[in-house]
# Entry
Amino acid sequence: MRGNKFSSRMFASLFVIVLGLCYCSRASSQASLGLPRLFGPSEALVKTAVEMNCELLTFPENETILLQLFREVDRSRMFAEYTSLKGKEATLPLYVRHFHEGNLVCVASAQNNSLIEPTVSNIHYLKVIEPVEGAEIEVCSGLVNLFEGNRLELRCKLKAGNHVSYKWLLNGRLVSQSLLHDDRLLINRTTSQDSGSYRCVASNSFNQTDFFTVNSTEVVITVKDLVSEPDISFSVLKEDIHNYFAVVSCRSTRGTPPVTFSLYNSTEFIASVMTEERFATFKVPLVLGQDLGFLQCQARNGDWVVYGEKIPLEVVPVGGPVTMRYTYDSGENYAVISITIYCEAAKGTHARYQWFLNGTLLHDRGSFYYVHHQHPELAMLMLSVGDSSAGTYHCEVSDSFDNTTAISSRRLYLDKHRLNRLPVWVVAVVFGSFTFLILLVSVCCGIGVVFRRRHYGEKSLSDFEMERITPAYYGKLDLSHYNEDADVVNAARGGEVDQASLVSVDEWPQIEEEKKTLEDEPAEEP
Ligand SMILES: *[C@@H]1O[C@H](CO)[C@@H](O)[C@H](O)[C@H]1NC(C)=O
Ligand SMILES: *[C@@H]1O[C@H](CO)[C@@H](O)[C@H](O)[C@H]1NC(C)=O
Ligand SMILES: *[C@@H]1O[C@H](CO)[C@@H](O)[C@H](O)[C@H]1NC(C)=O
Ligand SMILES: *[C@@H]1O[C@H](CO)[C@@H](O)[C@H](O)[C@H]1NC(C)=O
Ligand SMILES: *[C@@H]1O[C@H](CO)[C@@H](O)[C@H](O)[C@H]1NC(C)=O
Ligand SMILES: *[C@@H]1O[C@H](CO)[C@@H](O)[C@H](O)[C@H]1NC(C)=O
Ligand SMILES: *[C@@H]1O[C@H](CO)[C@@H](O)[C@H](O)[C@H]1NC(C)=O
Ligand SMILES: *[C@@H]1O[C@H](CO)[C@@H](O)[C@H](O)[C@H]1NC(C)=O
# Structure
């Protein structure tokens, strides 16, 4: 019983194994196509013939084997095929076209036996190269003449070529890579620096051995600068005693000509002119001393229009008094080393200033002085204090358009020794006065005591002396007050040396010290 059971189970197992073996041998005999191997060049020039190879090592006998070349993802279009009864390695000729580029596979199948499953090879990538040819620049943004801020887009158009790398040259120099996108050069906001002759160079290569390069023809791009806000100024022209004109100049610092300048007054357009430069002048009739509203320049190039500032059109002739004031710089030991003298007229919009030393006109610059002309309302003369700068200074102001009306300031005498000796002198005077005062008071007191004993009701000498001395003493102290105006030498026309100015010059350093101590005092208080 036991043996039976075992043998029947054994038989069942054997049957299964045999069945399996039978099935296996049947299957292998029917579908014994091995995996084909595809190989060949990885790059090919378009319109050339190449050979791809498909190798199949395992295949059933007496079956016609078909080897076909396809793109991996598209089996509807066969590129090449090869039939063989006993071919181990098939050569698949290919006349290379653009569409051959991509992942290729070789498919092996039995021609008349659908029972045999086809097999697919490895993937082989084929790159198809077409040499570049016929480069040409296309101006996609339209215009070759543009204005600053406009967009520029150029495209390098080729008759043929793929896998191309592009370079752009502007006036023979390489254009930054950051502006390039594939075959395009793109500048969103151009400036005049983007002007010039553009050329594109397209290139590709085959097999790392053959290089193809083409050159486009040149395209000249002009980027014009937009005109900047015009500055306005005017000078006065006297044609004769009754006819005055404002010669108005409008000037822009940037902008590619031609530029059209126009002039407006408060109410209307006056004139317009187109120029090849960046400035224009206009002549406008004028009445002296009268408010004629304002003037304004307009500048235009292309569609771009800008207006400048408005300036009042009013010409006030120079009027006195003409005043001089000065500041100084001192070096060590309070020695005055340089002085700046300012000259100012009470009125006058178009003043011209002239400086004189000992009555001789000082030109722009000399060994010890320098004449500043920057401020139209205020003239400056800078002096280094030395032997050569000693003398009597004055300034004259006249209308720039009519120099017959010069007004002179008072004269100011300056010299190094006076400027620098004076602190000692002032100290001596102040201390001297102080000592003298104390002495005097003491003497007076003594005398007073004696006199009071003799004449009880009589006015004392000491009182009288005090009255006499006090103004003088305070006079000196008053300098600190005088200081505020001391440097303003306010004088009408005159020939003689201005004594007040002398005092003011002399007292300066001493006063400064007094001022300093006065300023220091509150700080010391807690
Ligand atoms: C293949 O064909 C030959 C003759 O044509 C024959 O002798 C042979 O037995 C065949 N082989 C197979 C496996 O059918
Ligand atoms: C296979 O089939 C083709 C037609 O599909 C026929 O022309 C060819 O003769 C057949 N070859 C064999 C070996 O049967
Ligand atoms: C230029 O403008 C385009 C959109 O008009 C933008 O996508 C691009 O980033 C800009 N390029 C640069 C460099 O600003
Ligand atoms: C590709 O280049 C190799 C050398 O790098 C050369 O031997 C071969 O002939 C070239 N192939 C073609 C098709 O030019
Ligand atoms: C491109 O053209 C210029 C002049 O036409 C020439 O000098 C240059 O060598 C050319 N470059 C190439 C790569 O053909
Ligand atoms: C503006 O100019 C016109 C013509 O030159 C003149 O008639 C007019 O009076 C001027 N306006 C003012 C406010 O000056
Ligand atoms: C100006 O005159 C003074 C005398 O008044 C003289 O000392 C000084 O040297 C003169 N200066 C010049 C530069 O002539
Ligand atoms: C006034 O100026 C004119 C020209 O600038 C000059 O020829 C003339 O001598 C000057 N007259 C006076 C008095 O300065």
User: Anything to note?
Assistant: DSSP finds five helices and 36 strands in the chain. Residues 14-29, 456-526 have pLDDT under 50 and may be disordered. Residues 33 and 59 are 4 Å apart (CA to CA). The longest helix spans residues 416-454.
